[in-house]
Amino acid sequence: MSRTPECCSVHTHSALCDGKGTLAEMAAAAFGAGVRFFGASGHSHTEIPHDAGNVLPADPAEYRAQVLALRGEYAGRMTVLLGIEQDSQSPQPVPDWADYWIGSVHNLYDPRTGNYHGIDWDREKLAACRDGQFGGDMLALTEGYYRDVAAMAERSPTILGHIDLVTKLNRGNALFDEDAPRYRAAALGALHHADPDRTLLEINTGAVSRGYRDAPYPALFLLREWRSMGGQVILTADAHSPETVIFGYRQAAELAKAAGYRESVLLTDRGWEPCPL
Hints:
Order of helices and strands: EHEHEEEEHHEHEHHEHEE
Structural class: alpha/beta
Distance between the termini: 14 Å
Low-confidence stretches: none
Shape: globular
């Protein structure tokens, strides 16, 4: 029986971090949508003030216990994986109990002031980062962001999360030109730090479901480069509410095809499995 991309949804968030549904509600929505491999990927704890209430607590024991309970509840019907989205600024290491982890950059740290700047909160915060940390040069901000992405990629996460998140608030090139040579060089440079044998690049529809973007991450030029490197892709919804657990997968699949892919990868309890697009 042929598989569909909807079989896998492993970038999801619940009310234990910044999601709008309980873990049980997220799992139930995935099961109802025909998902075969569901993964919880709560945001790792940080000490950043604006992250308070949006990340897992310093002790994620309750999160772990709830996911493992769901694994038992759905045994034989849907595989439940225990993951984490590891933030680049998290003081904690990737937990050894995680079945997989998503490596992401959401914040930039300014060592001169000790301040953290959110990349994907709103344009006001992004402009404050640009002006306060990068002298008003938005392309310099993107270069700083991709330096952190490169460092995360070198850690070989299971999935490299929304690699070009810095474009989330840039609809219509409102803040910078995404075709600028400096920007593309920084993005491609970061991508080249990822190991295609150990890391999947996600095609992430989360910003589309929340109205920030018209197309999934990442940009087509990055997908084409990743394919030329021999890298594989996984479709994710970055779901923050039950109704979005497989949002936009067909659009994501079309983007993958435009980059030359004919299959994506399912993340399973047995490892990576091919999934025809």
